[in-house]
Every structure is written in structure tokens, then in C-alpha cells.
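Input record (Table S2, row 480):
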Amino acid sequence: MNQVLNYIGGRFQAAASGRVVDNRSSITGEVLCTIPRSDGSDVDAAAEAARAARQGAWSTWTIEQRATLLESVANALEARMHELAHTESQDTGKPLRVASTVDIPRAVANFRFFASAVRQHHDGAHEMASAINYTLRRPVGTVGLITPWNLPLYLLSWKTAPALAMGNAIVAKPSEMTPMTATLLARILDEVGLPPGVFNLVHGLGPEAGQAVVEHPDISAISFTGGTSTGAMVGRTASAQFKKVSLELGGKNATVVFDDCDLDKTVAGAVRAGFTNQGQVCLCGSRVLVQDSVYDAFVPRFVDAVSNMTVGDPEDPAIGMGAVISKEHREKVESYIALAQQEGGHVATGGVRPDLGEPFDSGAFLRPTVITGLSIDSRTACEEIFGPVVTVHRFQSESDAIEQANGVEYGLAASVWTSDLGRAHRVAAALDVGMVWVNTWLMRDLRVPFGGVKASGVGREGGQHSLEFFSEAKNVCIAF
Ligand code: NAP
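Output record (NAP complex):
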């Protein structure tokens, strides 16, 4: 794939301006492909194709037809699992093992799940003395889907599947840094017979192509996953036009370790929560809060486990971590490691680039890093770093743990490690977050509400929440 193209109205095409941007490998620094540097005119063309599709045969497709199409997409993704996983790994720098066992299987599951969910979805009827109310669900219209680089196909499919299930047309804008699997998805949608114009893909830079999607008057809903500051801009623009908006934003999630936890499971869970996908999952547990009475038992084991993680060639099946998304992002992460030291932190492990030899020394690799000794309200402990850096802090009591966990602007997720059932319930209820895991992390059931509070976002995705976001409810009241 030397040149990635837009997909508009069923045609693969360059940006109208002919301009392109390089997409570089974070593994070797080489140019992987070019992408169209789309602007407002390409988004106009995509929105126009979407409008035409909505007014055409797509509007007559039944739920059963749409669900069957989603199943065909899932089957086609599954048939190309190896190609997709390899492409995702090359585009993001994540281990091929992770792309093969998490990202692409989850994209398959998303399409299969929403095929089933839309078949099962129902709304209630409300009876009155002399009338009955029922709810009709209608597509919102054309929806804009804007997705980040950390889980490219996983997150695009999480929005595309329910949007199609509910009969919408789509203008999608993936991250400019990870355009490749979105393009393969467009090919698959084309091959399985989605009518032209129902799914449109516009590549380009966020402030250009992305902003044009958010501003377009014919795009009626925006489903955005990305950083909190970008989300604030998206929210302001979209709300002023009365668009439906879903914002899935950043996190600074606590891993809360009580002294009654199963230490082996907790150490393994905290490592997984901290460093999966090089720490680039919005749900990553990047602040580990440890009860004072178990701190001296937990921390050396945790640091030892992190020190033993391998970093290197993402194609190596034994590798623990690949590259972060770009050299620029690595510099940002490293600037936080430097800040942590200025703030009085101690780098217990990591903090350096691994010596891998070429071609990997031209990539964006970084050792997994654990920092101790920081104040709980230091910038390093409160700001989202979104990389392989975890800070560790002490707490005394249950109420201290809750106060520390809640003491950040974010409110996405937390994990709580304890063998006391009552404490698990109390702490889960008191945390200001959208999702709590107890004695596990990132165990997902696609039916449950997914999303955050505070600066972590607005709205929920998952199961009926996604189907409701991507539809308008219309009440019909019939008098007897
Ligand atoms: P980002 O910089 O906010 O970008 C997200 C998407 O928005 C990209 O497609 C980006 O395009 C686009 N964009 C940038 N500026 C825009 C604008 N002015 N108008 C419209 N779109 C614009 O975030 P990121 O660095 O890709 O992703 C990392 C962030 O995502 C982290 O904060 C992470 O926590 C968050 N995240 C949240 C969740 C969740 O479910 N809560 C899941 C995953 C990630 P370009 O890339 O081309 O600039």
C-alpha cells in the first residue's frame, strides 16, 4: 500500500487538491505510504455522496438486510485477519501478537455483535386510558466518525457497525498517522455490496479534514474518540449546530491496590493495565495507588516485572512492547519523564530508549518506565501521558484511596484489587469514573456502557447505547 486513497461515493480517489501527506513507520522511521491531504472540498464531496445514498436504495434496506451485511463484513475481516493484523502492526508499531489477538478479532466481533444487537433491539410501548404510544427509530442521517491512532480499526469498527446497523450514511476521518486498515475496511465494505456513498472515508489532517467533518452542515452527528482538548473543540463546534455528539476522551486511570489483594494476580494485572499497547490505551492504569501496608511487598515485584518486559521488533511473537506511535510522541513522553525527575520522582525502571540496532534505532521505542516518590498532585501524576509511563503512590485508608483516585480532571476508568467483597462494592460506587474493574482490567462485554465522566467525555457507547446514539427516537401516540 504505497498510496492510500479516499473512498467517496464508492470510488477510491485522491484528494481534490492532489496534495498528500507522508505516513511514517514508527518502527523504522521509513515512509510507509502517502495519504490524501483532504480539505473541505473532499468532505463536501463525501457528504454529498452520503446524502445521495441516504435518498437512494439504502433507505429501503430492512434491519435484517443491514444485519446480514454486517455479518458479511465480519466474515470478510476474519478471512483477511493476517493481512489486517500485519498492516495494523506496521502502521501503529504495536506487536503483531497484539494486533492478531486483540485489535482485529475485536473489529470482527464489533460487526458480529452489532448484527445481533440490532436484530434484538426494541423500544417500549406506553399505554394510556385511551391511547397507546410507541417509539420508532430512524437513522440520524449522515454521521461523522473521527477516530484516533491507538486502536485504529478496533475503534473505527466500534462506530461504523452500529451506525450502519441503524441505517445511517457515514463520513469517517481516521487519524492521519494510522490510515491503512481504515482503507482496507473501505475495500471490504465495497466488496460485500454496501451501496456507494453509504460509507465514505476522508483521510487528512485533523484541523483540516477532521474540522471540516465537524463543521459540515449536512453531517448531523459526530462520534469522536481522541484527546480531551481536541474533544472540547469538537464539542463546541458541533453543539453550536445542534448536532448529536458523543465524546470519548482521555484518561488518567487509577489501579488501586489494597493490602488484602492477591499479590501475584495484582502485579500481573497492574503491569498489563499499565503497559498494554505501549501504555497507549485510554483505559491504561497509569497511576498505581498502593496501600502503605503492602507497598514494600508490591513495588519491588511490580518494578521487577516491568524491568523484565521485552521491547523490540513488533513481528517477534515473544516481544512485550513495540514502538510508540511516533518519534514526536516519544519526545512528549520523555518530556514527562524529565518533568517527573524535576518534580522529585525516582525512575525505578526504564526512562531510556532501548538499544535495538538498525533499523529499529530509527524507530520510536522506549523502555517501560515506573516512577516512584512523586506527590499525588504532581503534574506527572495528574496529566495524561499516553505512553509507557506509570507512577506509583502510597495511600493509608480506603477513603484516602478514593480521594487520590478521584483527584484528577479525568474520570474514565479504574481497577480495584482486593479480596474484600464489601470494600470492592464501596470503592467501585465511590469512584468518579465511567467504568470500574475489580480484580481484572479491560475485561469487555460489548453490551455494557462504555465511556467516561468529567474530562473523559460525554455519552456512552456499547450495545443499546450505540444503537440509540446512531438513531433518533420518534414517539407515535394513537388515540383509540
Ligand atoms: P487527537 O489528537 O485528539 O485526535 C483524534 C482524532 O481527531 C484524529 O483523527 C485527529 O486527526 C482528529 N482531529 C485532530 N484535530 C481535529 C479537529 N480540530 N477537528 C476534528 N478532528 C480533529 O487524539 P489522538 O492523539 O489521536 O489519540 C489519543 C487520545 O485519544 C488520548 O487522549 C486517548 O486517551 C484518547 N482515546 C480515548 C478513548 C476513549 O474511548 N475514551 C479511546 C482511545 C483513545 P489527526 O490524527 O489526523 O490529527
